[in-house]
Amino acid sequence: MLKAAHKTGLVFFPAFDWAIDPTHPEREERLLYTQDQVTEEGIFDIEGILELKPDLINNQDIQRVHFCLPDEESITTESHLISAGGAVAIAQAVMEKRVKRGFALVRPPGHHAMRISHGGRGFCHINMEAIMVEYIRRHYDVKRVAIIDTDCHHGDGTNDIYWHDPDTLFISIHQDGRTLYPGSGFTGELGGPNALGSNLNIPLPPGTATQGYLYVLENTILPAIEAFKPDIIVNSAGQDNHYTDPLTNMKFCAQGYADLTRLLKPDIAVLEGGYAIEGALPYVNLGIIMALAGLDYSRVVEPNYNPEKLQQAPHVTEKIEKTVEIINAHWNNRHHLRESAGSPGDIQERHREIYYDTDNILERQQEKIRICRECGGTFQIESTAMPGSRVLAVHIPQYACHSCREKGYEMYDAAPKKKYDKVILQDKPQDRYVIKS
Amino acid sequence: MIIGLDVGGTHTDAVLLSKQGLERQIKVPTDTSNLFETVLTGFNHLLEDIPIGKIKRVVISTTLTTNAIVQKELNTVGTIVSSGPGIDPEWYRTDENYHAVEGSIDHRGREREPLNHKQILAIAKSMKEKDITTLGVIGKFSVRNPAHELEIRDLLKDQFDTIFLGHHVSGNLNFPRRIATVHLNAAVYEMHRDFFHAVKNSLEQKGLQIPIQILKADGGTMNLESSMSFPGQTILSGPAASVMGSIAYAPGDMDAMVLDIGGTTTDIAILVDKVPLLEPLGIRRGKYKSLIRSLKTHSRGIGGDSHVRVDGNTLKIGPERLGPAMAFGGPAPTPTDALVFLKKMNSGDQQLAQKGMENIAQALGNTPEAAARAIFKQTCTMILDQARDLVHRINSKPVYTVHEFLAGYAIEPQKILLLGGPASYFAQEIETLSGISTEVVPASAVANAIGAALARTTCEITLLADTEQKKAMAPEEDFTAPISHKFTEEDAVETTHELLLKKALKSGADTEDMAVEIIEYQQFNIVRNFSPRGKIFKVKMQVKPGLIKAYEAVCHHCTINPDIEKGI
């Protein structure tokens, strides 16, 4: 009798009636063949595998993470709320020990959605993983979280949300930004001044195969997680590293995904991208589910799998080894990097431009953060979107020190209302989201 | 007139109904070692002095299949499966005559690996050496493309008497359940065939020339011919018979719970607008999971004869039954003893019941009266808790579209229908505790037989149309047809409807009893590289379980016959 070694919860929400637009890759059909494969395999009949029902998240859940502009309703659909709710449902089951691990197979995805969201970027509007993580930080005794983003595109949204958070280890492995959307995620992107080293971005050259992924996992990701000692591990499980994915150029396979999952041992996995919906997703998802549950996945192999064709070129291997060296050096130096990032109490500024490809919006940001050794540091962002609104957003981090809490209110009070469409305060310690009136 | 006969584990109930009402009802003990004799006795009593020509319909529900499984009297059959990538098919081994072979079909029904005839012929040879005459053939994704199953059948049809194919049992996906279902059909086939041929012959000898209908687990019937292809569908038709017997009393436009309170267990079912809810995939009982269409019934170990004892300071009831109530000569106190002691029930030995209550009272440190009241109340509470648990589980079933999620129909029972021996004694308390209007089904002791008699013929069909691959198919019926890229939703529904009606008539349905509904509809655009390539349509349609029109009104003339009630 087939029995899961680890009790595993699954939320399956394929949103069979929702698409970005009729011919967009993020379409109704995307999880159809995955559902067919999983159903035909009788996955939900296996002892120790539970199918859970997603809950709808509410505005407060979103406001713990995002500044949505002009407001939450304008940039989300029910499908987003259910998708994030699916991740939350898994997290609840894991935290309440109804299951050991869980996987939210939901769409739409979310890992390109940043803290300020004026609309859709890379098919994402709100960030499912971040909403889930902040939900469990609020409702359960969880502080330190590791988020490992294995989608082939840089998880720039999650990277942005946790940029200043020393209690979240965010690691993204992705195809080199010089060759793929969104064009970011280079080795020098290590997090803000108060959290340097808690973001690790690992670009991989096109043509990276299973051996390359497992090399990075074993030589950088797993040691960093071990040193960080997270309370939970989250996997943003994008499936577009697959050798048949139409949008990327990698050589990963279902067996590789299952191996990666088995080694990473995530508490919670959340589906992200992956657009080889017939040739890859059914097998990759099956492999991930079986690996999570501790079942033998050795026969989960794509029908056209040919290991000869999926060899990794020597120059690719060399490049990956070099990248791992650079990342490890940064990681080992992280305490020093933070020490030398500035003096406590100082304000540091950052300017950037963000393009929303899905909704064709250009945003300009000016960010000011208080240098702090006690917490993540309060910051404010002045954001102007074209088309869109001009806002001032103040964020007081979850575990803010006394000075940073005061600084947050100071920034909020000082902001002239006339100058902006909205002045917003995200006060995490008090779980408040206030708009100046 | 029509006949309904339900062979239960301990009793066999049979009724004769005319349009005026219940003409005759009998209850005889079931002889599990000779069910044929039991059935015959039932018919003999029922048909005494009745002009045989007046009988227009006969429906039989039996525990034949269930007994065979429990007593491990299944036939030895061969099983050939082809799986392709995924979970190792070795996990689904049925017995030593189970063979996994090469060959693979993918989720869209495309061949990924051909069959190996040499391998299959060698396996067939080894089976022949063991005198195996019945074979089951099951392929992964055979409901997307049955070609491999058909190819194996054609290859081996001269070597085996009967071959059962996976894609015939259901349009639902689930390879392990498909294997289990085909194996069950194959393993009970000979026994089922011999039994019903014997029944048919003896009824014919009595001059009864009408086709026999057999009750299925989904509360519908099928004729003898159809049952030969799917004998496994007769499993657990007993609980279905009781549910069907309660339908006439259920309110329309409302949800109702049916609680069949027996000696050992309470069976719980849900009706929505007089239609019983079905299992989404098929029967599951413990580890056994199948694709056999079935009413959603939960059987829980709480009933009139449940074992009552005190554990620490806590009163425990069930799930075991040690025997009948002490009042009827049993070994240990039961809820029935509480009923007898409290004089809610007038039969049974009052003194023995009192002895039982004294035992419990002593352990609880209160009076026998208080103990009896506590047992009575706790029994009703437990039954209701189990019913609420089922409702909760149905309501937390995941859905897959935004529309379904937001529409989210939640079951909210506004009526409770009680069946079974002790039902009438519990009715008032259950109504008080639940706050839901509660009614005991009239003639509840033979409601199962009435339910069988009145059940209409049901069936289901699944159509899959793929305009990119330019074909429509309904695997259960071996239907495939070419379609154009212009194929529409209306075409899909119409094709399914036609196939369903054809199948229903073939299974013995009456044209006036075709209550058809779409139970699943999905449509997808196939998009490759930002351009539409075609559409996929999935339609599942059923003739829903219900009562035959001609006799539905009969139920309202069925009153409780006190003589029958006494026997329980």
UniProtKB/TrEMBL annotation, chain A:
One of its GO terms (molecular function) is histone deacetylase activity. It comes from the Bacteria. Coiled coil: none annotated. InterPro entries: HDACs, His_deacetylse_dom, His_deacetylse_dom_sf, Ureohydrolase_dom_sf. One of its GO terms (biological process) is epigenetic regulation of gene expression. CDD domains: HDAC_classII. SUPFAM superfamilies: Arginase/deacetylase. Residues 78-278 form the Histone deacetylase domain. Belongs to the histone deacetylase family. This is Acetoin utilization deacetylase AcuC. The lineage of its organism: Bacteria, Pseudomonadati, Thermodesulfobacteriota, Desulfobacteria, Desulfobacterales.
Automatic annotation (TrEMBL), chain B:
It comes from the Bacteria. InterPro entries: ATPase_NBD (IPR043129), Hydant_A_N (IPR008040), Hydantoinase_A (IPR002821), Oxoprolinase-like (IPR045079). Residues 178-458 form the Hydantoinase A/oxoprolinase domain. Residues 3-158 form the Hydantoinase/oxoprolinase N-terminal domain. GO terms for biological process: glutathione metabolic process. One of its GO terms (molecular function) is 5-oxoprolinase (ATP-hydrolyzing) activity. One of its GO terms (cellular component) is cytosol. This is N-methylhydantoinase A/oxoprolinase/acetone carboxylase, beta subunit. The lineage of its organism: Bacteria, Pseudomonadati, Thermodesulfobacteriota, Desulfobacteria, Desulfobacterales.
